[in-house]
Every structure is written in structure tokens, then in C-alpha cells.
TrEMBL record:
Compartments in which it is found: Membrane
Lineage: Bacteria, Pseudomonadati, Bacteroidota, Cytophagia, Cytophagales
Membrane-related topology note: Multi-pass membrane protein
Keyword match Secreted: no
Predominant place of localization: membrane
UniProt keyword terms in alphabetical order: Membrane, Transmembrane, Transmembrane helix
Name recorded for this polypeptide: AI-2E family transporter
Family: Belongs to the autoinducer-2 exporter (AI-2E) (TC 2.A.86) family.
One Pfam family here: AI-2E_transport
Stored InterPro entries: AI-2E-like
Parts of the chain that traverse the membrane: 12-29, 35-55, 62-88, 140-162, 198-219, 225-247, 259-280, 300-329
Amino acid sequence: MATIYTPKQQRVLLIVSLIVIAGFILVGLRQYTVALLGSGIIYVIFRPWFTALVHKRKWNRLLVTILLILFSVVVIIMPFLALSLLLINRIQYYSQHTEQILQLIDKLEKATGIQLTNQANIKNLVQQGAGFASRQFPSILSGTLDVVISLGLLYVGLYFIFMEEEKFLKGLRKYLPFENDTLNQLGEDLKNMVNANILGQALVSLVQAVLTGATLWIFGVPDAAFWGTVAFFFAFIPILGTPIVWAPAGIIMLSQGEIGSGIGILAVGAVVIINVDNLLRVMLAKRMGDVHPFVTLTGIVLGVPVFGILGLVIGPLLLSYFMVLFQVFERQNRKLRLEGEREQEKLEQKAKRSV
């Protein structure tokens, strides 16, 4: 029986069907998008090791895949969950014991002579801020199933990417609308972006967090480990970063009469921690690629509301990907324009010869 659709209509309906089905899939998996993105990100991070061990040294592919997965769990997942849980517990504690924060703010107001706001507003702001911060982290108590499913999807995806790497890369080359040279350049650009946004930024944040926590501990600030953890996450934010942590700590110590400790914290922060940050960023930019602070800041603003605390790295990464794809689009248009100009010149020369 003949179809009622023309070939053109069939093609349009096929494309519409694919888009609609893909939309349903994305909507259904929207809360696990981070896990699917994480598979690709971890693959890019560990691909050099995988290539060296499997393709060059001819190690068993399954063994290398399992070792890399276990390594990523120990080095990436477990520390992040531990930091998150530590931060959640302390945030919940301070939200329930706002009198400690109110006392510190009262001392700060007396020391500076500046009236910030009334205590009721401060208490409300602290509770709202604590609630917002808690929602950005994976909660073992309220979201165990979601965390397990997300990690399961992440590592199942990573397993199949490693085990079927050739098919995966071939599929990308087949379905992505780019030429081979463009795909190679795109892959290199994306690798640099991953290294700069994740490896580089995480290393800088870790060093700053350790320095901040150690400084606060040396000068007698309570909960130095907690504030060092806070500094780790704040360090992802350009310009502001760790001064959000150590500057108020120094001022509070001054307001309590601890002049030496307060000056010491502010001096170490301004002279050591900030300069170490700048030095590390310059060194890593040469090795891993550089990302403009405005891109990072904009990516964080976009990423945190969508992806939670992981938006600190995923937001800038997606924005960087957009910029890379835009550069690819620009290169392709330039290439097409040059080819068109050459073709036009050939036609003009041919017309002149015929005359």
C-alpha cells in the first residue's frame, strides 16, 4: 500500500520524530544530566592514560578500564562527597545556631562602627543562605537513591566509552556535522578546556584551600577545617575566591582584640594566598590552556542553579564548549567563503579567456 507522504514529507516527519523522542528522553533524564556529562569529562581526563596503557603498552583493556574507574572513585568522587557532607553538616549546624553568627556580627559592628542590619534580618539571611547551600550538594540522607543512580549512570557510561572507544569516536565523527580536520581541532580545544576548567582549577582551589585552612588553624580560628573546605569551593569563583573566607576571619579576630592573629591572617591572605593563586594560574595556563575569568564567572552563574555545586566546573565548561563550537563555526564559514572566492575567480578567468 502506497504511503500518503511524499519523500520530502517523510524526511521532515522523521526529523521531527527524532527531535520529539530526544526531547522526552532529555526531560526524563534531566536530573541525571550531570552524570552523563561526567562520563564524557572523566573520559577526556583519563584518555591519555588509557591510550598509553591500552594502545601503546598493549595492556588488557578491561583491566585498565576497571583500574581507571576505581582510581577516579578514590581520587575524585570520594573526596568530593566527603567535602560535601562536611560542609552540609556545618551549614546545618550554623543555621540552627545562628546566635554564634549574630555574636560575631555584633563584634564586627562594634569594631568597625558600621551598622550592617538588624539581627532578625541577619538570622533570616543566614537560614535562607544555609537552605540554598544545602540544596546545592548531594545529600546522603535525602537523596541516596539519586546519588546512587547518578554515579551508576556515570560509571556505566564511562565503562562503555572505554570498552568501545573506537565505536564511540567513530560514532562522533559520523554524526557530528564537522569535517575531520575540524573534529581534530575541536577535540584538541575541548581537551584543553577540560584541563583548564577542571584539572587546573581544582588544583588551584585545593592549594588555596589548604593554605587558607592552615592559616586559620595557625592563628587560632575555630573550625579551620570547615572554613578551609568552604575556601575550596569559593576558590572556583574568580576575583572573589578565598578572600570571602580569610578576610572576614581576620577582621573578626581584630574585633575580638586578637590584633596579632587578625593582622597575621590578613597579611598571609593578601601576600601569600592571593599571589600563590596568581602564580599557579599563570603556570597552569601555559600547560593546560587559559580560560578568561569572565567566562568562568559567567559559567558559574549559569551552572550552579542548573547543576548545583557541580555547576562550579560544569557551567564554565559548557560555556567554554559553546565558545569552541562558535570558533569552529567561524572557521568553517571562513573556509567556505575563501572557497567561494576562489571559485568566483576561476569563473572570471574562464570568462576572460572565452572573450
